[in-house]
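re: ur msg from earlier - yeah i can do the zinc ion complex, just paste it... oh wait u already did. ok heres what im feeding in:
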Amino acid sequence: MTTQAVFVATQHFRGGFLESAAVRAFHSDTFSLPLPPGHPFPMGKYRLLREAAETTLPGLRVSEATPASDGELALAHEPVWIHAVVSGSISAAQQREIGFPWSERMVERARRSVGASIGAARTALLGGEGVAANLAGGTHHAYAHKGSGYCVFNDVAVAARLMQAEWHRHHHRLLRVLVIDLDVHQGNGTAAIFKDDPTVFTLSMHGAKNFPFRKEASDLDVELPDGCTDEPYLAALDTALDQVWRHHEAAAPGLAFYLAGADPHENDRLGRLKLTQAGLAERDRRVLQGLRERGIPVALSMAGGYGRELATTVAIQRQTLALAMQSWLAWQDKSRQRPVEESAA
Ligand SMILES: [Zn+2]
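and the outut:
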């Protein structure tokens, strides 16, 4: 997508006559948790990201997510876990493993965060938009039977299973799903949920020495050494994506989830890697272009980001959304069978 094309499209959005023509994003930040002072989780970043997106990305249309129902959650979670969370009967140890104290707001926020990924996936796939985003989500440490690492429910796992069900209902065909998890921490919960499910392929690229210290087996795991910089990271990503495309030569995925974690960044408190913001932009471009070239719709989620300054994390995630917007514009061009310049998108 050329700069000029982006500019023209943006003008159309501002003019309002392409009112529905914008990449859609779903937020759940009105349900932020009142955490005790000094709590390490950067709860404030979600509202800051939405405000940055709304004020600086006019081609993005942000809506509040609807909460996921118990029935939707049960597609990926054991009913006993859903009941424990909803009723507030989770133990102190379970709350410590999640990292948040239980509250009704915690339940509502967890439901909405899953709902935001459902909204994004439905828009990208069934809405034919090709690209949509959750301004939070990527809660990949949640297992079927428990939460962990700031994750209560697994948004991507629930949304993947729900889209498979909806797709089958509409088209009477199987929907293959691809999960590209580039958060710096392994997507252990997602890997465990889909371990015996050949219809969902899980790729996780993560720090070898980082949390979780007991890793699960994804379909493809790429472990990175501490201090990994842009060049080796992007080379490892190219190799991994090649493997993914080769694996799917016979049966392409119909939908992808991309967990675009900001925590591989050099300024991250928890990441242990040394990617620059430009390196992360290149990462996002390669993933989005690879999916677009193969006609695979994608739902993005922001996943982790623990910058020493909140503004750094917000800037990286805003950059991901700007690139998603460019990819969405290129997708619309492609679906209208117009030639499109892929190189700069
Ligand atoms: Zn992370």
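cool cool. The longest strand covers residues 200-207. ping me if u need the other ligands too
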